[in-house]
Every structure is written in C-alpha cells, then in structure tokens.
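Appendix B. Chain record.
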Amino acid sequence: MASRKPFSGHQGKPSASRMLAEEQARLRAERGWSYRELSQKVRFDHTYLHEMETGKTLGSSEVIRALDEVYGTGPHLSQLRELARDSAFRDKYQRYMQLEAKATVMHQYSVCVVPGLLQTEAYARELLRAGEPLGGDVEEQVSARMGRQDRLLGDGSTDFRAILDEAVLRRVLNDKRHWRGQLEHLVRTAGRPNVTVQVLPFAVGFHGLTNTDTMLMWMPNGRPVGYVETGYFGELTEEASSVERLRLAYDRLRDLALSPPESVAFLEQLMEEIPCDLPEST
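Structure tokens predicted for this chain:
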C-alpha cells in the first residue's frame, strides 16, 4: 500500500477540501492507476481529475460519485465534498460580512425576499424558520440580522440602495399584520436620506440580473466588491472585470425600475390592499 503523502504546498490545520484532494490522490496511488487509466474508468477527462487531486476544483457531484463507485468507498468522497462545499461557503460569507461592515456604499438587487438590511424582526423570523437552519438558534440569527441594520443608522451611516423585484412584494408573510408592518418599515426606511428603495415591476420582463440576487459594495478606498447569492450558496468576487460586469447590469436595472417616489407609492398601494380589520393572526 502506498504511503500517504502530505498535500503539496499546504501547511497547518487540514481543511475538508484539502482532505478531499488528498484522499483522491491516495486512492489512485494505492491502485497504481495513471490519470488516463482512471479517466477511462470514470469517463471524465484526465486533466479534470488532476485538477481535483491538486485542489484546484472540488469537482462535480457526478464525478465524485463515480470515483466512490470505482474505488468502492461508498459515500466517503461524496461526504467529504459536501463538507468542503459548506466550508467554502462559510469562509466566503465570513469574508462578505467583514467587507459589509466596512462598506461606505452598498447597492443591492433582491430577487425574491426583502434584503436583510430592510427586514423587520417578524419577517426575518418567518424567513429563517422556513429555511430550517441547522446548528443555530433562530432567535440568535434574528438578533444578529437586526444588529447588521445599524449600518444604516447614525453618523457615518452607509449609503444603501435596494432594488426590489416585484416578486419580493408579492410573497407575503403568513401573518398579514406582520406583513403590513414590513411594508410600513420599507416606506419609513426609504425616507431616510441615506436609503433609496426602488421596485422593479414584473412588466420589465427578463434582464441582466434575472435570478441573481446581487450586492455591490464600495470600500473606503473606493474599491468595489461584488456578491451574488441564492438561497443556499453565495459567491464573492473582488476581480475588477467581474465586478464591473455586475455594476453595469445593476445600472441598467436601475434605469428600468420605478423611481423612488413611484416605488414608495407602489408600497403604499400594497398596504391599502391589506384589510384594516385583521384578526389576531391570519
């Protein structure tokens, strides 16, 4: 049996992604297969397999399952990949939170939920409960989210612009009283001098950021950073060309959205559609 070699170029505490790469290299070496031989067995390109073993990519779930089958390792490699993917997401999100805390200007486009910086406690609580978070208390997460909103208050507050897709405002809370409170909060916050809220109507159709929840942030030194997110994954980009593409798409989207006064009128119209004599909970 071949001895296990340390992962080249890495020191310190092992990560899940490093362990995944090392396991693949170990398993292949134990069997004495070349990359081309392994490629024939799993039907994936040999250069792709090399990149996986050197840690350049985690590889798709399909190729990892194929490797588990060829090596007879059950779900071992697949489980390592899940850990590595989750760890990578946490690391990127931590980096995002560090940058958000420093940002002097933030521009967000929200596809389907109210942005965290504009949520009420009731909205955040229902949203987090619906996501069935693992390894954390909902109330603790709600408190942390409310704390982030300090960025919009007081001296030196962040300049924040939010474009809300109409879908955000058509997905109401179960408790209509809480939904009214969320709409009131949006209108009230939109009145702050450092906050701009715009609504993007359904009538706009497809656009450059369809299905892409986007945040653009400018650091104190003027450097822009981009972040795109789904309900499960987020991608932070600090590469100038990628951020510029997001910025241009956002600028075009802003031109399509309702003006700030029109957007507030839209929110107020939604509030009027909610019955005044609501029961305690609906």
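Further analysis of this model is presented in Appendix C.
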